[in-house]
UniProtKB/TrEMBL annotation:
PANTHER family: PENTACOTRIPEPTIDE-REPEAT REGION OF PRORP DOMAIN-CONTAINING PROTEIN, PENTATRICOPEPTIDE REPEAT-CONTAINING PROTEIN. It comes from Escallonia herrerae. This is Pentatricopeptide repeat-containing protein. Keywords: Repeat. PPR repeats lie at residues 78-112, 148-182. One of its GO terms (biological process) is RNA modification. The keyword Calcium does not apply. It comes from the Eukaryota. PROSITE patterns: PPR. GO terms for molecular function: RNA binding.
Amino acid sequence: MTVLTSSPSPLLSKALEMKKLFHQGITSLNHLKHLHCHLLRLNLHQDNYLLNMLLKSAFNLTHPNYPTLIFTQTRQPNIFLYNTVIRGLVCHDHFDLSLHFFHAMRKESFTPNSFTFPFVLKACARILDSKLGVLVHGLVVKVGYEYDVFVNTGLVCLYAKCGFLDSAIKVFDQMPEKNVVSWTAMISGSIGAGRLREAVAMFRRLLGAGSAFEFEILGGITLLARIRAFEMVKGSELDDLIGVGFSLGPLIKAILPSKPRSLNKDARQRSSLSIVYNGACCCAQTTGGS
């Protein structure tokens, strides 16, 4: 019995060839432009899948004006292209322009997803646009991403950076899963609001979480240096926690759990103690301690 198989169309074959070229990697801007010209010659410059690969590479290799121009010439962009452009612009600190494309995406009736919201929220936070951030929060709930860890982290960072610490705490406490970024945003936000005891309490909560967080967050121990530098809270509580003059011994004693879990048995934990040492030295320099 003979099985008849149809060969792929010439256009499909060309598209598959271009896909293979993109997957091989783009090594330079000239290489990127060569592939772009190849797309134009093959009449594949409106293929959203190939365009998405082109845009990602363009944002990595050159000024965002080039990929943005490519995007604006796309006749029917999909949600993936919008997400790529928004992400690329945010990564290049073009926050207002990224929000412009977010609004354009909404006008086209596209529903944002878990790849859209974190970057839109970051843009809102960086330009302190709390009004838009609140509207985006409402949209997050409406479309069902209120339990996404990365979206929630974006909300925590937004509210903390804009000075709405109570809103940040509310989102943070309702998060089923927390990451280092959300913990750090809460600690930094508490410090920035002058709520230093809450910052200390949050840091202690982090160390008591019984996870790998402590080994990552200790690299950012200069947060505690900021607490001492504020000179806003006096008394034995902070003195006991931080140590007079930020001397190294009291600081390490204060921030580490009273009974570290096998601190001398695990290579990663020993490495973390080195991070603590370096961070504490930085604290001493920051506050002028000995």
